[in-house]
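Checklist before submission:
- one chain only
- standard amino acids only
- sequence pasted in full

Submission:
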Amino acid sequence: MQAYTSGAPRLDSKHRDTCYRTLLLHPRSALHIYNCNLAHRRGERTMAITTARAIIVPAVESKLWDSTIIFSHGLGDTGAGWSFLAETWQGRKLFPRTAFVFPHAPTIPITCNGGMRMPGWYDIVDFGNLTAKEDEDGIRSSARILQGIITEQVERGIPSKRIILGGFSQGGVMSLLTGLTSEMSLGGIVALSSYLPMRGQVPSMITDANRKTPIFMGHGKVDPVVRHEWGTMSRDLLLKQKCEVTWREYDGLGHSVDPEEINALEKWIASRLALESDSPGGSGSKSEL
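Returned file contents:
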């Protein structure tokens, strides 16, 4: 059995134990993600959003709420595994007018893990084989879930250009697919340790609304789960489609994130929200989260 680490960055002494996860993976065994520190979950607000459950972190300056970051987790995880992003950034007084949504994937059987049921945005038939048959029905179903969350944010008064859609691993895969095919122009798309699914179809599915939407892709160069070359291949395919991609890769980083990557993402998000702050539709009444 091979062990991988796929966890949150240890940003500082305050957050170093926020969320540590170990993945044990074998083609015929279950993928386990355990040891998330539950202490920091106290006081989190949860609610149902369309067909997905999610952890909701309201904007610190709730009456001035003007943007939302939606961030989806990877296989076997939950939204709680990435809520440290909101805790960290809000704790440092960043993005005070931004709300955060961390969706929980539906629980489904995962073929490559012997059919064990676990949170997943889509089934994986053959782990480690990018050319294996993809669960297109599952991918499309999860895209509808994420699009529903985007739509709900817009209905609450947040302009779509003030929404950042992102995720890690499977969550990043879904963010690429959902963002690029959405009819609502987004402020940005984030894919960490991810790849572009349905590569033969997505180029023709990219909407005019998001063909020029900036994309941030980050990948560890020694990722044993979602290989580095899958990321670069996806990046190159997107560039051929004239998409705007910011690519960052990290020496010695496996299937995880680290402070350097989070810092780069933080700066990228800040630039996106600053650029879109004066976009049309930026004001209006918004219902409370």
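Reviewer check: The radius of gyration is 18 Å.
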